[in-house]
Fold these 3 entries.
Entry 1:
Amino acid sequence: MKVSHKKFEKKYLESCMALIKSTWLFEEDFAAPKHPEYIYKYYVLNCVNWSQHLDLLVDQNDQVQGILFGSIEDVGYLQSFLYALVNWKNQFEIWWHILLGDLGDQKQARKVYQEMQSYDRDGEALAKEFDGEINLFIVSPKLRGQGYGQQLMKRYLDFCRKRGVEKVFLWTTTDCNWKFYERYGFQVRAEFALTKPNASIDTSEQGIVFQLTISDLSISSKKKSKEG
């Protein structure tokens, strides 16, 4: 398969949604959703909103086969305000679809969405320690094991170096293939309980925060070069 790198544009939104769905079936948690695509749309646009690095792997048919979206944490007051406005708009839209019944049973849809929000707050609790965050990283099952994930990560790290971003993080859950991140040099910073909106703990899985100090990669690379 021939692929090339493209920057996210709205024309790639549906293709990004399809790629997310191929790995994470968010709709399984909803009760008979009529239009499950809205939760995928919300998820992608939420990641896009906070990200300055918007790298896609696109095939010859203009279909998205890989995504890495990353953000810079310290962007200044004005930009933070603009991000918050877009975030409010995205939240308004998803609540509107919940009220319309597009995501199935309203009570269940509210519960699932509020859990997503609560888990995200848990995952972002240590954000102030870092200069940047990987908001979304996914490669199509068709391309896994062929070095495309490393390619996306290398481009992201180059982006960070050019902008003086030294420490980055991401958070995920134990039901994901989190060992995947260790291959890129990430180390576990913290593990945390996932808190439900009613303050109870989700015992089915835990959250993990991974961190990466980019200058450490350069030191490690130089050591390997000398040893070689």
Entry 2:
Amino acid sequence: MTYCDTISKVAPVPVDQFVQYSTSRSGLRFHRTLGSFSDSPHPGGVHFTLNLTAKYQRIWGFGGAFTDAAGINIESLSLQAKENLMRSYFSTDGIEFNFGRVPVAGSDFSTHTYTYDDVRGDTNFTQYNLTDEDFFYKIPLIKEAQELSERGLHLVACAWTAPPWMKTNGDYSGFGFLKSEYYQAWADYLVKFLDEYKKQGLEFWGISTGNEPINGIIPVNRFNSMGWTPWSQRQWIKDNFGPTLKKSHYTVKLLALEDQRFMLPWWINVLMSDKQVEEYIDGIAVHWYWDSLFPPSLLDRTHNNFPDKFILATEACVGDKPWEFDKVKLGSWSRGEWYMEDILQVLYLDIVAHILT
């Protein structure tokens, strides 16, 4: 077998045994072997010591993102290929993804910049509408994934930008921030997204404060982005987004940061310095870019500062750097190893779930 489309479901094994799955360049593909623990080490080889008394965070699961790009590519497949792909991701025959990140309108995985209400001054959102991307790509695939999943699907909503008319630069991207006079309108816009998806039969487990706020201070960005400072975001959560979510009939979890590891723990420290804001925030979302330059201990420090807040890895992709000319490298073992190393590292340091883009 030269592919990894399916994997047999892991059945319980006796307490003194373990199951190992191996994939290798030499030809193994999800190859299952059964091993036994021993009280005394054997000579040679690699030794693992298992401490059954030490307990850490519970792992909630793994997932991917329902972006426009994902939908366009998946829907371009033949019906049989599409079914096989979706089963390999979400069914018990596959890797059983149980988390899904959903962009609120356009993202850097879109063919163009857009929001759900680009009509200037429409704070009552009479012109607010989901788009073809939602109806043709996101919503149908999410529903298919839900049908395939036995574990359920935890959906996390994340917006890349507010409509340009709400921003200081009047644009979808570039150096721009949310105007303070639209703080409440932006909170209402996000809750309306939850309303619109509920009309389509979909409800969300979580929603974040917004994708990569640091991108809003980078003038050269050409995809949807909006800047925040931790102080302005703290004020918005306290006065607008937090109360608006609480008043809604949704019980979604609020995720803060949604940006890189190097912003920890200082960004979260600023947000949590207001106890009211701390009460609104349920967890912290982090991305993997530039992790090689910044120590994983930043995750540990953040967890130690706020042990009652879970940490979720919500975005990771390869090929995003300007010097990575091959955006897609089919069959690349090195890229697979990058993902594997990162997942192992962050699971060791308090992450409860990992979502790939």
Entry 3:
Amino acid sequence: MRIYLLRHGIAEPQSESNDFSDANRALTPAGITKLKQAGLGLTKLGVRLELVASSPLVRARETAENVTAILKCKEPIQLWDELAPGGSLDGLMQKLQRHQDKDSVLLVGHQPDMGFLASFLVFGSNQISLAFKKGAICCVQVNEVPPQFPGELLWMLTPKILKKLGGK
């Protein structure tokens, strides 16, 4: 299974427009533009998705919507509480285990959780969080979920590199 881990794009600060709620923060126009460029880069890499799951927070959901639209992914976006900030790694592994028949999965979430998840999948330990810029993505190949053996980090790309790949 290829697991793509994507950190949400650039979001608005907490303000009156989002009720000062972290959960209601939407992507900024610049954040949306960068994600669409990232989606073009992922298209050039040949990314195809069989399952898309996102944190239920607005900015993560909007990230999943924008990227999957560019990838022309027809799969509905599932909202998993385990991908919200501080979500349960064990719970996330249980959910992924139910989808072992899928070859490619996109998980959209938050930092430092995406970094801890990448570390767990690659090194077997979530004691260190790999750095993920907003809109960054990595691809990890695992043989099973939860992985009994370390997965393979196939690539990790910043939004800037994805933009160059997409040709814009």
